[in-house]
Amino acid sequence: MRIVLASNNRGKLAELQALLAPLGVALLCQADLGVGQADEPFCTFVENALAKARYAAAHTGLPALADDAGLCVDAFRGLPGVGTADYATQFGYEKGDAANVRALLEQLQGIDDRRAAMVSTLVAVRHPEDPEPLIAVGRVAGEITCGPRGDGGFGFDPVMLLPQFGKTFAELPAEVKNAHSHRGHAARQMLALLRERWLQDPGVGP
């Protein structure tokens, strides 16, 4: 079965391809199919993921999977949340992972409460008007370090410390990260939903 990933993020594509490999699903990047980015006007992960999945399905004719994920910092009342990807731009930096990390560390200077959670919401639709989208949510709580650590992953991985390992996501081997990450938790839920609901449905698509 072919499913289009409603994202142009190659890091997400690689992680989700590995996590969904047991299903034998061919996960295609929407950019490779000539599909641009959907609008994400909502303030919750699930609403934006649903909008992206519907958009990709409408423009490709394929079932679509979307991931809306972000960092929720306790001291910032859950922000940056859905604005995670563009976080640095509000402080005058260019958009990008390194700038996001720099801006976050600057904003947390002098703040003792460094608790945060990485949240991933996956939404899958069979077609744009699918009334019963599949929804899976993964959440991992940790702390923001005082400086980047590790060379793996992407996004805020270098500063997101997992207390049970004493390491950031960026310091963990890929297989360990996938087993314990927010996206890993959500992907395993989605894998079970896809297996139960779609793989028995001949009308899902090619």
UniProtKB/TrEMBL annotation:
It catalyses: ITP + H2O = IMP + diphosphate + H(+); XTP + H2O = XMP + diphosphate + H(+); dITP + H2O = dIMP + diphosphate + H(+). The active site is at D68 (proton acceptor). Gene3D superfamilies: 3.90.950.10. It is an enzyme of class 3 (hydrolase). Pfam families: Ham1p_like (PF01725). Mg(2+) binds at D39, D68. Substrate binds at S7, N8, N9, R10, G11, K12, A69, F154, G155, F156, D157, K177, H182, R183. It comes from the Bacteria. Keywords: Hydrolase, Magnesium, Metal-binding, Nucleotide metabolism, Nucleotide-binding. Its EC number is 3.6.1.66. CDD domains: HAM1 (cd00515). InterPro entries: dITP/XTP_pyrophosphatase, ITPase-like_fam, RdgB/HAM1. Binds 1 Mg(2+) ion per subunit. Its cofactor is Mg(2+). The keyword Chloroplast does not apply. Pyrophosphatase that catalyzes the hydrolysis of nucleoside triphosphates to their monophosphate derivatives, with a high preference for the non-canonical purine nucleotides XTP (xanthosine triphosphate), dITP (deoxyinosine triphosphate) and ITP. Seems to function as a house-cleaning enzyme that removes non-canonical purine nucleotides from the nucleotide pool, thus preventing their incorporation into DNA/RNA and avoiding chromosomal lesions. Belongs to the HAM1 NTPase family. Homodimer. This is dITP/XTP pyrophosphatase. It comes from Verminephrobacter aporrectodeae subsp. tuberculatae. The lineage of its organism: Bacteria, Pseudomonadati, Pseudomonadota, Betaproteobacteria, Burkholderiales.
